[in-house]
Amino acid sequence: MNWISYCDRPEVVVWEMTRACRLACTHCRAEAQPKRDPLELDTNEARTLIDHVAAFSPRFFIFSGGDPSRRPDLVELVAHAASRGLRVALSPSATPDMLALDFEALAEAGLACLSFSLDGATEETHNTFRGVKRAWEWTMQGIAATRKAGIPFQINTTITAQNYHEFDAMTTLVESLKPSVWSIFMVVPTGRADAHQLPEPKQAEALLNKLCELSRRVPFAIKTTEAPQYRRIQLQQAERAGLERPHVGGTNDGRGFVFISHRGEVCPSGFLPVSAGNVRRLPLLQIYRESPLFRSLRNPTALKGKCGRCDYRMLCGGSRARAFALRGDPLAEEPLCTYQPKPQE
Q1: pLDDT in tens, 254-294
Q2: Which CATH number fits domain 3-300: 3.40.190.10, 3.30.450.20, 3.20.20.70, 3.40.640.10?
Q3: Which residues make beta-bridge pairs with 185?
Q4: Where's the Radical SAM core domain (predicted)?
Q5: How confident is the model at residue 1, as a pLDDT?
Q6: What are phi and psi of 151, to 5 degrees?
Q7: What is the DSSP letter of 343?
Q8: Non-local CB neighbours of 278 within 8 Å, separated by 6+ positions
Q9: Count of beta carbons in the 10 Å neighbourhood of residue 26
Q10: Where along the chain do its domains lie?
Q11: What is the pLDDT of residues 38-66, one digit of tens each?
């Protein structure tokens, strides 16, 4: 899809089913709470939302949280979404609630993928990151249960200044686990995360270059979240090596991507917590297409600073969430990018 297509409909839709979660992650964008919010979308509202999403056929529909395992209607809603032709992914937290799920029932319901977070190469690092002593153990048990049920799984890794140095060891660990996808997320200082968790721009650039090199030798797919400059690096490395130009995607916050909160608020992403409307009052697609916020995020000429001058702005565009978190402006330049645009003629 391209910029024009993204103006019509999103490619990825994420629904935050709940903010309830038993973990206490240091970077949690949702600032998850122990108990469920009584104002969450209920089952009937969720089914209506799913029907609306199915009508425009995005590439992925992701159930997220908090911890979706806390919703007793989870399997029912997965089945409903799959029956409507949606490719459904689930992103639970590794908790006893997740381990209590019926993984076989999720597979039968039509779940296409299940993701697990691993944020350290060791048990100690990961548990510290997640704020609970047995988080590593529960994650490994969840991966085993997912394999047994025959559900493809994805590993998500958040990169911060505190775990950046473990990237090589994390690579070895992920290779041993054999996921279908490894997704690298560059932390955004929102929710519980703060600016002290950000790696240096040069560190981020070096890591993404390593990731690109890794992508050419591993059997699983590699993607990034809130690191759209990875697409630039993919093109640069291919050009330097004389390789065929790779096909790279172009979604970004509000551009091919939309997030619905547990209360129905529609945001460009979970890491850019600015609501453009609520699905309880307006159809999701109307909010996505017509709200001034979303329209500005899909306008490459609206970008400011070096992002607005960048020759890769159509493909990358920088993390709009990180710009908002650090600059207070979702159209400001990307704080973690080292690239200097070519002079405009």
Answers
A1: 999 999 999 999 999 999 999 999 999 999 999 999 999 99
A2: 3.20.20.70
A3: 158, 225
A4: 7-221
A5: 46
A6: -95, 125
A7: P
A8: 263, 264, 265, 266
A9: 18
A10: 3-300
A11: 999 999 999 999 999 999 999 999 999 88
